[in-house]
Design goal:
The chain has 291 residues and is an alpha+beta fold. Helix content is 38%, strand content 23%. The chain contains 10 helices and 9 strands.
């Protein structure tokens, strides 16, 4: 059952689900900005009378940042604060994410108990996911993103890099958005794991979840693919295949497969001046055979 706060948000935007409500809210919020890509989330923040600042953040014992963004009220106005150490792309996404929180709070502002509910641990995961949806739609509105994707063609390394540069977002954020505006495509992100109980291998790390998509469990190795296009991409940089057989629940065959190897500076954040070891990923786009 949907929590009362999220139900109020859904009704406010006359949507079938809170997720669709967030998409509508973000579209409405950015209506005056879609001609100015990349959209500056700080400019969007002014629609709410909000201010934005980039400030140094504290680091924990493991040297990771202790916060990724914070929304407060200062002198009766919303204020968004994000760590200065994060990459430009990550700062932009964090600001847009906090704008998602503002959209949620605004819908229930007259009901203190519902405001409290939005801040509860019980709704934390759902609320964070909703705000990520909001951030994606604020930074990459559907119409201009779809037009840019159509201009590039099918998703591959060049397409994702071009879209990420054009909308000033991370490669992963652009890749995920492709699967939303072009749902015939699925994405699986693989990382090389040396810590897994079954030994070192390229393993599934992430798969964007969307309505109607097949759930692919994390941790499965690329050895379940025939041919192993992930290992091929890691070795050669890029790899394609007309068809790949997959021993993965819900995915027996991947069609029109394209994979490429990506080296990133950090696993979660790209911090300015951070010189810790890089890590490797392989992006794999594919279609289900019936698409």
């Amino acid at each position: 059952m949907t929590a009362r706060a999220l139900e109020m948000f859904r009704r406010t935007w006359a949507a079938d689900t809170p997720e669709l409500a967030m998409e509508k809210a973000a579209k409405h919020t950015t209506a005056d900005f879609v001609s100015f890509v990349p959209i500056d989330p700080r400019a969007v923040a002014t629609r709410f009378g909000a201010t934005v600042s980039y400030q140094p953040a504290q680091r924990g014992a493991d040297n990771d940042l202790t916060e990724h963004g914070q929304l407060t009220v200062v002198d009766g106005r919303w204020h968004v604060r994000v760590p200065l150490q994060m990459s430009g792309e990550r700062r932009r996404f964090s600001v847009a994410h906090e704008l998602g929180h503002i959209l949620l709070f605004t819908a229930v502002a007259d009901y203190p108990e519902l405001v409290k509910q939005l801040r509860s641990q019980e709704l934390f995961t759902r609320v964070e996911r909703l705000c990520n949806i909001g951030a994606a739609h604020i930074l990459m509105p559907t119409a201009p993103f779809r037009a840019a994707l159509d201009e590039q063609g099918s998703p591959d390394r060049q397409t994702v890099e071009t879209l990420a540069s054009h909308f000033h977002v991370s490669l992963e954020t652009a890749a995920r958005r492709i699967t939303e505006v072009a749902p015939e495509w699925s994405l699986v992100i693989w990382e090389y794991s040396t810590q897994h109980r079954k030994g070192p291998a390229w393993r599934i790390a992430k798969q964007p979840q969307r309505a109607g998509a097949v759930f692919v469990p994390d941790g499965m190795s690329s050895g379940r693919l025939d041919p192993d296009i992930v290992t091929a991409a890691a070795r050669d940089g890029d790899a394609t295949a007309v068809s790949v057989s997959a021993d993965i629940p819900g995915v027996a065959t991947m069609a029109d497969v394209r994979a490429w190897h990506v080296v990133s500076l950090r696993k979660t954040l790209v911090d300015v001046g951070d010189e810790r070891p890089q890590y490797e990923r392989v992006f794999v786009f594919y279609k289900q055979p019936n698409n």
